[in-house]
Amino acid sequence: MGSVSLKIGDGTARFKRATVCSFAVNILMLFSVIITNLFALYAFTYSPKQNIPNPFHHPHKNLSLISQHVSLIMKEIDSSQRKLAQMEKQLLGYDTLDLSRPNLATELKFFLQHHQLPLGKDSRTGITEMVASVGHSCEKSADLLSQYMSYKVFGPCPDDWILAQKLILKGCEPLPRRRCFAKTVPKVGLTSLPASLWKPVGEKILTWSGLGCKNFNCLNNKKLSKDCAGCFDLVNETQKYIKTRTKNDFLIDDVLAMGSGGIRIGFDIGGGSGTFAARMSEKNVTVITNTLNIDAPYAEFIAARGLFPLFLSLDHRFPFYDNVFDLVHATSGLDVGDKPEKLEFLMFDIDRILRAGGLFWLDNFYCANDEKKKTLTRLIEKFGYKKLKWVIGEKIDAGGSGKPELYLSAVLQKPVRV
After folding, report:
1. 198 with 238: CB under 8 angstroms?
2. CB of 300 within 8 A of CB of 183?
3. What distance in Å separates the CA atoms of residue 224 and residue 384, rounded to the nearest whole number?
4. pLDDT score at 287
5. DSSP string, 308-359
6. Are 14 and 96 within 8 A, CB to CB?
7. What are the TM regions of this chain, as residue ranges (predicted)?
8. pLDDT for res 33
9. How many CB atoms lie within 10 A of CB 105?
10. Given CA atoms 349, 352, 354, 357 in this order, what sign does their dihedral have?
11. What pLDDT does 198 receive?
């Protein structure tokens, strides 16, 4: 993984990525220190073989000679440090976001400036200034980022949530904050819990700009994902988790009964329109649903049901403290492609936020082939989770191919590690 640092003093923001070349830099620094010390030792101990008068006879000349040697040593050290800094920059390869470019938004420059702590250095952390958070990949999308940060201060924000989501999906996360007012949509007809969980959501209270569909009828006739085929039709969703359709479907009551110490709070990854969180809410379990608005207004729809949407990509570290959730629920939205390391990073973050004894519910995870199933199985086994329930089954593809597809469902319990 890389480390991120922003340095604005010279008008630039640098995004530094540590590489294997760090070892070479450390060797060079050690070599420079040794040479400098040898030079100092030589300067203070060397004496010519010719006769030299007693130094105490000329104290001023002796002090002057020492001063010259010290000055030479300091110049050598300073020169070495500059050379090492330049070599480190060349070896490590800095990605630079040049804030002096004329086409860069002024607001972005303001946001990235350092902010000195009002009371100076913090004694506990050693921090003297605060640096604004911005995704390390933002420099690769500097033009889009500048477009996102071009707006009238204290005016209305541009209707550009599609641009913001595009930046997030390009790794520019977190995004910079903005000093403008987001567009407001009147939320007329909202009801209180628990009635709001299953009451149809009005189309007029949602934002349809930037989407191909402009109504629920269009969304429900479109297979948005393997986990959201008609998921905006709440009548169709009412049977989920209380009645099984295949052997891969687990009942919520059965899973809750497996929870050690009780299930109170949970995190749902790729939760579609929020039906899982709604069912858990009926069981007095608070669930946060991770979502992005890919082809549909997921976040607003979930919020309209009185539930908690978290607008976040799966490449972002989950903004939760360690060991806080009793349950993590994931569907095929957990799929991050064919890169095992990427799935490992995600699984370790899931493990981090799940408490010991907590449950990881893998719900109808689509296995494109047997090799993908084996890869996921081997990864799960490395974590040492207890398999409370494990089912591999086939379902007919609802997309029209009619071919059977392989799915994995499991309830796993996180062990206590010492």
Report:
1. yes
2. no
3. 34
4. 97
5. EEEE--TTSPPSS-TT-EEEEEE-GGG---S-HHHHHHHHHHHHHHEEEEEE
6. yes
7. 20-44
8. 67
9. 18
10. positive
11. 94
The distance of Cα 259 from the centroid of its chain, to the nearest Å, equals 28
Per-position b or e across 321-349, b if 16+ CB within 10 A of its CB: eeeebbbbbbbbbbbbeeeeeebeebbeb
Q: 11 CB contacts (<8 Å, ≥6 apart)? A: 98, 99, 100
Give 4-10 contacts, CB < 8 A, sequence gap 24+: 4/136, 5/131, 6/112, 6/114, 6/131, 6/132, 6/134, 8/99, 8/112, 8/113, 8/114, 9/114
- What one-letter code names the amino acid at 413? Q
Q: Which two tokens stand for residue 396?
A: 């007919």
Q: Give the amino acid at 159.
A: D
**Which residues of the chain, if any, have pLDDT below 70?**
1-26, 28, 30, 33, 37-62, 84-99, 337-338, 397-402
Task: Find all residues with CB under 8 Å of 395, minimum gap 6, and list them.
Answer: 246, 248, 364, 404, 405, 407
Q: What is the dihedral of CA 395, 396, 397, 402, to 10 degrees?
A: 160
Per-residue DSSP letter, 141: G
C-alpha span between 279 and 238 (Å, rounded): 9
pLDDT in the model for residue 95 = 38
Q: Give the closest residue to 364 by CA, choosing from 329, 315, 398, 388.
A: 329
Rounded to two decimals, the pTM is 0.71
Per-residue H/E/C for 370-385: HHHHHHHHHHHHHHCC
How many other CB atoms are found less than 10 A from the CB of residue 274? 28
Using a CB cutoff of 8 Å and minimum separation of 24, what contacts does 73-76 make?
73/36, 73/39, 73/40, 73/43, 76/36, 76/39
Sign of CA dihedral 17, 22, 26, 29: negative
